[in-house]
Specification:
The chain is built from 7 helices and 10 strands. The chain has 251 residues and is of the alpha/beta class. Helix 2 packs parallel to helix 3. The model has no long low-confidence stretch (mean pLDDT 94). The structure holds iron/sulfur cluster.
Length: 251
């Protein structure tokens, strides 16, 4: 599933309420430095593209028009779309423009960022300007993260991501997709006792203000992925909830 426009919605999001979605990536392919087995956009290598990234000016015009025409209340303006939003070279300027237009049209709306947390060290200023930083960590065990998230840059490791998440001093939301499956003869499962132990440790170390855990929701490029039930996810996160962490389950 690819978004064909810069702005989409508002759509009702199970996590964010009425969300006006922002796609800063091309309309006909994914651009991401991960290529997750569960990515709703599909695998990157199968996509040929002619489209380019929107300029700041194109984005500004599209957002202003959407905000002027919105006929229901907007709870959040959400950077998501066809890949990793922070990879847009003008991401900082784009977030600044978004704040200005948000203040003008929907001052109560939050600006949310759904990000894979790989650009924290280089895009921190822009990430900090978003009200809701929802940052992904699918496994604290690097071999599993490599199988599930399939980073295209070799230095993207679980350790590095956890280290960068710690720099927020807890001022972020951690998101994790729980899943099991197999791809190219390799099994992945981020719900084993060993995995959970490492993930609990990462949560304690990074101390997010909220943890969002979820099961796959839509079609995925890998067909063997098992969708976990709400009850199963509930049992996985119970130890964290018992320690006082705010864990929200979306399954
Ligand atoms: S990080 Fe998000 S956009 Fe990138 S491949 Fe994974 S699911 Fe898709």
């Amino acid at each position: 599933m690819l978004f064909s426009r810069i702005i989409y919605g508002p759509i009702h999001s199970r996590r964010l309420g009425n969300s006006l979605g922002i796609n800063l990536l091309p309309s006909d392919r994914k651009i991401c430095n991960f290529d997750c087995v569960y990515c709703e956009c599909g695998f990157a290598e199968k996509m040929a593209s002619k489209a380019t990234l929107p300029t700041v000016q194109e984005y500004t015009m599209a957002l202003e028009e959407a905000l002027q025409q919105a006929d229901l209340d907007i709870d959040t303006i959400t950077f998501s779309g066809n890949g990793e939003p922070t990879l847009h070279p003008n991401f900082l300027e784009i977030v600044q423009v978004t704040r200005t237009l948000r203040d003008r049209y929907f001052p109560n709306a939050k600006i949310s960022l759904l990000s894979n947390a790989t650009k924290i060290s280089t895009k921190k200023e822009a990430i900090m300007l978003c009200d809701n930083r929802i940052l992904k960590l699918d496994s604290a065990v690097d071999t599993t993260l490599q199988l599930i998230d399939r980073p295209v840059e070799h230095d993207l490791t679980a350790e590095k991501i956890i280290e960068n998440l710690q720099t927020f001093a807890g001022d972020f939301v951690l998101q994790t997709c729980f899943l099991r499956g197999e791809y190219q003869g390799k099994k992945f499962d981020n719900t084993t006792p060993n995995e959970l132990q490492a993930w609990y440790e990462a949560v304690k170390k990074t101390n997010p203000k909220q943890v969002m855990v979820y099961a796959i929701d839509r079609q995925t490029p890998v067909k063997t992925i098992e969708k976990l039930t709400f009850e199963e996810i509930q049992s996985l996160v119970l130890p964290l909830q018992e320690q006082g962490f705010d864990v929200q389950i979306f399954a």
